[in-house]
Amino acid sequence: MSSVSPSTSPSTAATGPVGAIAKMLRANLQTYALIFATLVIWLYFSYLTNGSFLSPQNFSNLFRQMVITGFLSVGMVLVIVTGNIDLSVGKLAGFVSVVVAAVQSNFLTSTFPDQPILIAALSVFTGVAIGFLYGVIQGYIIAYLRVTAFIVTLGSMWLLNGLILLVTEGRTIPANQSTFAQIAQGYLPNEVGWIIAIITVVLLFYGMFNSRQRKRRYNFELSPMSLDIAKTVLFSVLVLIYVYVVNQYKGIQAPVLLLAMVALVVSYVSTNTRFGRYAYAIGGNRQAAQFSGVNIRRNIFTIFVLMGTLCGVSGVTLASYVGYGTISAGQGYELDAIAACILGGTSTLGGVGTVFGAMVGSLIMVSLTNGLQMANTPAAFQYVLKGIVLVIAVYADIRIKRSSN
Amino acid sequence: MANATGTNILEFHNVTKRFSGVVALSDVSLNIRRGEIHGLCGENGAGKSTLMKILSGVYPWGTYEGSVLYEGRELKLEHSSIRQAANEGIAIVYQELTIVPSMTVGENIYLGKEPVERGVINWDKLYADTKQLLEQYKLDIVPQSIVGNLGIGKMQMTEIAKAISRNAQVLILDEPTSALTEAEVEKLMEILEILKSHGVTCIYITHKLEELFRITDTISVLRDGKVITSKPTKELNREMLVSYMVGREMKERFPEGQHTPGKVILEVEGLHARNPHTNREILKGVSFQLREGEILGIAGLMGSGRTELVATIFGEYGKVTSGVVRLNGQVIEVKNSRQAMAYGIGLVPEDRKTHGLVLIQSILKNISLANLGQFSSLFAIDTDAELKRSLEYAKSLAIKAPNLNVPVDSLSGGNQQKVVISKWLMSQPKVLILDDPTRGIDVGAKFEIYKLIRELAARGMAIIMISSELEEVLGMSDRIMIMHAGRSAGVLDAAEATQEKIMALATGTVVPTEQAILNQ
User: Fold this and answer.
1) 8 Å CB contact of A292 and B369
2) How many CB atoms lie within 10 A of CB B71?
3) Which helix (H) or strand (E) holds A174?
């Protein structure tokens, strides 16, 4: 073994770009395996449905369908990374959706009859605020009163179920105000879609060159230029293809854009801020984090507040998506969110997991549901297959990790 | 079996083990004679653990070249077949304990082979057998006690009892004494003598040379995967052994240093503190002063309160009931590690794996964990600056790794400790507390850490260094505080201190003199 060399990645000088690609693949084996699995699932369903699975319309719907549990997965990753769990997210999102529906139909519509934008804005604010407040309470009990997250959120699940029944009184409440409906049902015009795509591509290239320049300033070893460019081109092409396909239908889906932005922000926060780093350290070794001056309670509190807020966002999207609030709102979403995280490589032991992985996990879950429905698989078998896939995926993950060690 | 004494029970023939191009063992041939205590030493990474992992089936037959003969037959272990090795009569006591803390001594010893009658465990027989076993080896442990409530010494004894209860012919002890007090080491030596008289062969891996010379019949030294020597103990001496291990003549075991202690920076007066969980009083009056540029050694047996003392000063242990801590003359109350860091106090904790490191994370993230504030602008971390600064420390401490993205659990003990020290140096403390910093570290890395501590002191940092090894505390400290039963039993100047004086104070066999108290 040599002493530390000034690079973040192993030296590539000797092996050239082919070796560099092989190394990159090996280092991110899990990520690539996930993406590969998604593609296999898509092609399989596409074959089963004679191509209609990957038609622009279904492709567009697929991504819309992942949004509601997607928001939950974004927060759930951090919760699980710290070694906690949140079983209440489905019911909290459901509760938010029924309150938003109730406030909108019983109060907002009659109070501000001619101000659709204000109604929509107040609906969103109400929903997010409820999620935030619930997160504050739940986070306080878990972090500062030190009741196990599992117990607190299990209790919350029942409590929120009761509240949902109280608010709805067993009825379905409409939430179909037209501006509000745009949140989950809106599409961007094709031109706007292309502008977003181009901005994204420009940012991708700017980010790559900027990062290389900073590395050079610090005299760090750089990965081969060709490899960096190839990676950036690949991502750019994916973005362009995506926009091209959804533009064939109605354009970029408003909720998908919202989820993408939230996921990007949380992903950045999780890797590039103290708050995020501390979360991983707490999950990796709580005592070592404690001895390194990490404020564990505040960190866990903040994570549950974030989780609650994201439940708020998810609940608002849910109300907008279905256009009403109902007693079964959010039923079982917590398990979908947890499964998405696990599929995406989050360790239940804590300390390991990425937002990106959880997003791909979410996409896999939704692809399975959607594909099985399109292939007319009976509901019973849909559950059976999803269960089997989850366990097999985790087993494969264990094997991959073992072989790469 | 007894008549075969003198023949080899284990023979390694030209064993070579490679890991993806790196040679861990290179053409190792070694004979272990029946009934002997065979010492095995070498720096971390020398190949001792690899050799033992071949014996336990972690590296099964076929994954290495060469052959291992056990009782004259080739040993062909399957993957991770500790049970198979145990059935063959090879038992291993690892450095990290493998017992279940929430179970009793008896349950632990018979875990996996409980006496069963008609599908039900016969608890009476289990505890009777345990009692008999413990008595046979003169172990003063109650079979029904919960292991987690025992001290680390008795846990270690339980572990050994568990190993020998399976009729082990060969018992391998990997660094068994790194956590033991002198008295417990004494006890272990007695047990080994008893085992030897029963004809059990022992392979004893340790960094502690005194123990090797005291107990072993033969000593083998490994270096860089090769057997450097394998000789009867009586043909070797300490200097020879050290030079075999490091491959160079090591004249001095402790580096020279300039000592010019400055003004008093930290002052502890009559500190009393309770364990926050049990409310038992752990510190019963500790007083000392620490100067800038000074190394204050703290000696004391396990349970003397030395770890609790420094953890209390760092704000992460006790409830202070009386007494004061002053920093530069100002009374400070430290409630947690964040405040301690704000005051410029750093602590390299005793157990690096549980308190010092996030093992699954990279070297980089471990070094920067306590110092992210230094690289954070309003919100985000400047990851380039983080990497740059971490590299500076990794280089100056000569951490051996291909790059900083390597997870720390893949490093050797010495390098892991350097990561913890890097973390605290980066926080630029005025007072650095090191709790047994060389525990379980090989000779070469120890020397590097000693040199580093000396340099830091020379630059004016005030250092408190707890040590379990008397020689180390004598060799490194300017002054030595000895703790006994939660009190400071005395402070000795390095010039006047001897092993005997320290031991006498640490065991409470002498009452501290007026002079010793005045010296505080």
Assistant:
1) yes
2) 17
3) strand A173-174
Cα(B467)–Cα(B288) distance, rounded to whole angstroms?
Answer: 17
Q: Is A215 on the interface with B (CB under 8 A)?
A: yes
| pLDDT confidence tier of residue B4, bands split at 50, 70 and 90 | very low
Tokens read off for B168: 């082990």
Closest CA to B90 of B72, B77, B107: B77
Find where tokens 């699932």 sit: A41
- In 3D space, the residue among B135, B200, B208, B129 whose CA is nearest the CA of residue B174 turns out to be B208
Note whether B30 and B227 are within 8 A (CB).
yes
Single-letter code of the amino acid located at B93: V
pLDDT of residue A8: 42
| Helix segments in A140-189, DSSP class H | 149-168, 178-185
- So what's the pLDDT on residue B71? 87
Residue A282 makes CB contacts below 8 A (sequence gap 6+) with A82, A83, A289, A294, A296, A299, A300, A350
Label residues A112-125 b or e (16+ Cβ within 10 Å = b). eeeeeeebbebbbe
Amino acid at A207: G
Q: Quick one: pLDDT at residue A324?
A: 93
Distances (CA, A) of A316 to A1, A64, A98, A122, A262: 55, 14, 9, 11, 14
Question: What distance in Å separates the CA atoms of residue B481 and residue B295, rounded to the nearest whole number?
Answer: 11
The predicted-structure confidence for A221-241, as pLDDT tens digits, reads as follows: 777 888 889 889 988 999 999
CB contact under 8 A, A292 and B347: no
User: Percentage helix, strand, coil, to 5, in chain B?
Assistant: 35, 30, 35
Q: Is A305 within 8 Å of A121 (Cβ atoms)?
A: no
What was the pLDDT predicted at A1? Answer: 40
Collapsing DSSP states into helix, strand and coil, what is residue A205? helix
Strand partners of residue B67: B13
User: How many Cα atoms within 13 Å fall on the side-chain side of residue A360?
Assistant: 21
Cβ pair B402:A1 closer than 8 A: yes
Going B223 to B229 to B230 to B232, the CA torsion angle's sign is negative
- A91 pLDDT band, cuts 50/70/90, is very high
Cβ partners under 8 Å of residue A397, min gap 6:
A30, A33, A345
Q: Span A14-39, mean pLDDT?
A: 73
* Between B440 and A355, the higher pLDDT residue: A355
Query: Does the CB of A277 have a partner CB in chain B at under 8 Å?
Result: yes
CB contact under 8 A, A292 and B337: yes
- DSSP code of B59? S
d(CA B11, CA B33): 9
- Closest Cα of chain A to B378: distance in Å? 10
Chain mean position to CA B217: 24
Dist CA B460 CA B473 (whole Å):
19
Give the separation between CA B22 and CA B14, rounded to whole angstroms.
Answer: 17
Coil, helix or strand for A312?
A: helix
Tokens in use for A189? 């015009």
Q: Residue B420 CA to chain centroid, in angstroms?
A: 15
Residues of chain B with C-beta less than 8 angstroms from the C-beta of A405: none
User: Quick one: pLDDT at residue B250?
Assistant: 45
Segments in B165-231 forming alpha helices (H): 182-197, 209-215
Q: Which of A280, A291, A403 to mutate to test the interface with B (most CBs of B within 10 A)?
A: A291
pLDDT at B209 over 80: no
**Closest in A280, A288, A293 to B355, CB measured:** A288
Query: Is the CB of A218 less than 8 angstroms away from the CB of B384?
Result: yes
Q: Which residues of A44-73 are buried (b: 16+ CB within 10 A; e: fewer)?
A: ebbebbeeebbbeebbbebbbbbbbbbbbb
